[in-house]
Amino acid sequence: MSPSETQRMDICSEGIARIWRSWRSDFPSAETALSASRYVDPADSSAVAMRATAAALRGEFLPGVAGGRAQEWLTGLISLLSPRAVRWAVEQAIRRRGTDPALASQVRADALALWAISLYEGLPGPFPALLLGAPNGGVAHLAAALGVPFLSEHFLISFRSPAIHPDDVAAYKARGDGLARPILDRNPDLAVVNHYDPLHDRLLIRHVNHIRVKLLDLPPAYRAFVQARLEPGGAILFIDCQYPWRQYRVGERHTFQVGGLGGVDDEEFIRGSPFIGGWQLDLPLEVQPESEWGTLPRFRQAAEEFARERGYRFVVLRGDSPEHYAELAFRAHRLLSEKEGRPPQGVLVDCFTQLNPEANRLSRLLSCWLPFNCADSLAFLKRMVSHFPPGHPVLFAPLPSLSPSFDTVPLPRWLEALEGFSVMLVGVNPRLYPFDVASLFRFPRELEAWCRAHPDPVRAQLTVEELVACAEEMSVEP
To answer: pLDDT tens digit string along 217-247?
Structure first.
């Protein structure tokens, strides 16, 4: 069985300490190096992409949220209540969640990087390649197919905040400004996006303020990790996701984003529509790489210069959305089975942070990762279904929602898109979806149980050349 969530996070701290001892000359203090585990949100999509990759490289399943079977049982009972009662219970939990705002002054780019590389502590190497750049679940599936690490360009810090009305964009920004200021003052190599989504994160933003920090340079810890763990002349596969979103310009390295990926675009979030009122600020708007999924050009430039100086191949995997990498991962897993002359056992349709690439390896499942549980991801699934192998099961793990909105897709519409396939819901109680918060616990346990009952391990690994060929094939298709 996989180690508990507590054990896994302990590995982070122990790994940071070991790396600090071996590379102490590169960093300002051990206290700084250890601090990131106190403020990085381990449940955010960027952290989960790295943690799921590291688990798969160890041949492990990534555990669900911390708490164990007792908390799973309790949340299962809560899920049986009315949606209003579920929201109330979740909101009480959110009140206690979040990072102490006093830690904003301790955020350091090098500590963030140390936290990331500590996830891969103890893995054998060196590796023929590694992935670097914007995170998403498709990238995690690609890294697992290649058998190499992934290092994220950005990290989310969810700061605890006094309760506000979720539509009070000015109050949210004012608190975000106070959190961003000490981070920016102490880190010239970081940019900050204060991310405010009053639709999909409506329950969360009452009590937490989301600060996403994005690297502008390659931190010393990343440089040292690459030099220590990448083969001479190996490939840095750079995830250059060009997903755009209009953001308010607050300062030179500071922007404010309203909304995010789903069934609503940036224009509707800002200007409003018959469905939502719009959330505007008296600040200049400009198109930027989207907060959660987009790549900053300055980080790419720094990574490319480092690769050139050190003699590594620099391979850019450019996509216009996270869905691009999800489709690339699907093709990569299909190619692995073709290389071994074996048919896949089925397709795993996972979603957002409901992610476990080890399942695809252990049971020869094609991967179809969905960025979120909204209308645009449903459209992507409908497009991908035509590539699913007929007559094979589909394991479907839709993401529950703490605050479903008008663009959240109900379960019957998901199942309608999968009509004609034998669908197994993983971790989800269909009567309770999308309010089934206990599915966050059940998903990894039920998925692992199915995979161990249906083993057909993929032993081949994707090569860099094969991945590049898949990407080029996608770029020329209509």
So the answer is: 999 999 999 999 999 999 999 999 999 999 9
Query: For residues 63 and 3, is the Cβ–Cβ distance under 8 A?
Result: yes
Which residues constitute the domain of residue 266? 5-319
> In whole angstroms, how far apart are CA 112 and each of 35, 191, 285, 408?
9, 13, 29, 32
**Residue linked to tokens 């911390």:** 66
Residue 255, C-beta contacts closer than 8 angstroms, at least 6 positions apart: 191, 192, 193, 194, 247, 248, 249, 286, 288
Amino acid at 474: M
For residue 270, pLDDT over 80 is answered with: yes
Among candidate residues 278, 261, 266, the one with its CA nearest the CA of residue 399: 261
Q: Do residues 114 and 215 touch, judged by C-beta distance below 8 A?
A: no
- Give the model's pLDDT for residue 71: 63
Evaluate whether 243 touches 153 at the Cβ level (below 8 Å): no
- Do 208 and 300 fall into the same domain? yes
Closest CA to 46 of 157, 129, 123, 144: 157
Same domain? 462 vs 367: yes
pLDDT value of position 92? 72
d(CA 464, CA 473): 14
Q: Which of 319, 352, 370 is the last residue of a domain?
A: 319
Q: How many CB atoms lie within 10 A of CB 5?
A: 19
* 162 vs 438: which has the higher pLDDT: 162
Instruction: Tell which of 319, 347, 377 closes a domain.
Output: 319
Quick one: 314 and 331 in the same domain?
no
Looking at the DSSP bridge assignments, the partners of residue 247 are 286
Give residue 25's pLDDT band: very low, low, confident or very high (50, 70, 90): very low
Domain count, the chain: 2
Q: How confident is the model at residue 6 (pLDDT cuts 50, 70, 90)?
A: very low
Please report, for residues 131, 283, 371, 400, the alpha-carbon distance to residue 351 in angstroms, rounded to integers and kept in the order given. Answer: 21, 34, 6, 10
H or E element, residue 185: helix 169-186
Task: Give the angle subtended at the CA of 423 by the CAs of 420 and 461, to the nearest 5°.
Answer: 105
Same domain, 348 and 313: no
Which residues in 271-353 belong to E strands, given as ranges? 285-289, 313-319, 346-349
Q: Residue 244 is which amino acid?
A: P
Q: Is 338 found in the same domain as 310?
A: no
Which CATH number does the domain housing residue 425 bear? 3.40.50
Does residue 156 contact residue 188 with C-beta atoms inside 8 Å? Answer: no
Maximum pairwise Cα distance, the chain: 60
Assessment of whether the complete model's pTM goes beyond 0.85: yes
User: Both 195 and 221 in a single domain?
Assistant: yes
Residue 450: pLDDT above 60? yes
